[in-house]
Amino acid sequence: MPKVSISTLRRILKDMGFEFTRRKKNSMLIDRDDIIAWRYRYLRAIRSRRANNRNIVYTDETWINAECTTSKSWVDTTIASASQARKEGLMTGNKMPSGRGGRMIVVHAGNENDFISGAN
């Protein structure tokens, strides 16, 4: 592949009839009152520890589903139907994450300066 800038790649894809679109998903996140209170207690505790020059270590974990996809992608707008795409050997759209199947768990720890060596 030749090296091209992102703006050049976008222009090429648009010229080919692709469009970068967001998948539609109606959702809204609202915190419960007890979660909001817990967050305030946590932030006060962190502020107190920082005032006392305590070393604060953060840990976090996440996972990646085997069927994971992105919320936006380049779409070929010259394809009119799913049957046309199949005839031309193309995908018929984003595969929505199923939440099933294999999963990789990512865990690490760090402080304000860096990740902690050997914590993973």
| Secondary structure: helix percent | 25-40%
Class derived from helix and strand content: alpha+beta
Give the count of helical stretches. Answer: 3
- Can you tell me the overall shape? elongated
The run of helices and strands is HEHEEHE
Strand element count: 4
Could you please describe the fold and organization of this structure?
The structure is a single chain. With 120 residues, the chain is an alpha+beta fold. It has three helices and four strands. The longest helix has 19 residues, at 33-51. It is elongated. The mean pLDDT is 80.
List the helices and strands and how they pair.
Elements: H1 6-15, E1 18-22, H2 33-51, E2 58-65, E3 72-76, H3 82-87, E4 103-110
Give a quick precis of the structure.
This protein is of the alpha+beta class and 120 residues long. The chain has 3 helices and 4 strands; from the N terminus they run αβαββαβ. Strands 1-3 form a two-stranded antiparallel sheet.
List keywords for this structure.
29% helix, 3 helices, 120 residues, alpha+beta, two-stranded antiparallel sheet, two-stranded antiparallel ribbon
